[in-house]
Amino acid sequence: VTGVSSSRQPVIQIYDPRKLSTSLLEQDLNLAPGYMMANFDTDTRLLSVTMRGSSVVQLYDVTKSVKRGEMKQINQKMFGSNTLSGVCAAPKYSLDLTKSE
Description:
The protein is mostly beta strands. It contains one helix and seven strands. The chain has one helix spanning about 95-100, and strands spanning about 1-5, 10-15, 20-30, 35-40, 45-50, 55-60, 70-80. The strands form two sheets. It has a four-stranded antiparallel beta sheet with strand order 4-5-6-7, with no helix packed on it. The longest helix has 4 residues, at about 95-100.
C-alpha cells in the first residue's frame, strides 16, 4: 500500500493479507510528495517506486525479511532532466532480457 505519513512524506506500508489490522512494515521514502506509482514483480519480489513528475525510480527488495520489519533499497535510477509521467510492466515472455538489462 502506498500513501503519505502524518508529515505528508510518501510511505510504503506492507500488510499480511491474513491480518490486515496492522502493517508488517512502514517505510518512509526519500521522494518529494506527489502521486506515487509503484509496481511489484511477484517473480523477483522487487518493488519499483517513483513519483509522477520525478526523475528518480527507487528499487526495493521485498523478501521474507519484511516480517522482521526490513525492506532493502537496492538501486536508485535517475533520468536526468526527464521527468516520469507513468510506469508499466511488460510480460517477461515478451522481452529479450539480454538486450534490456
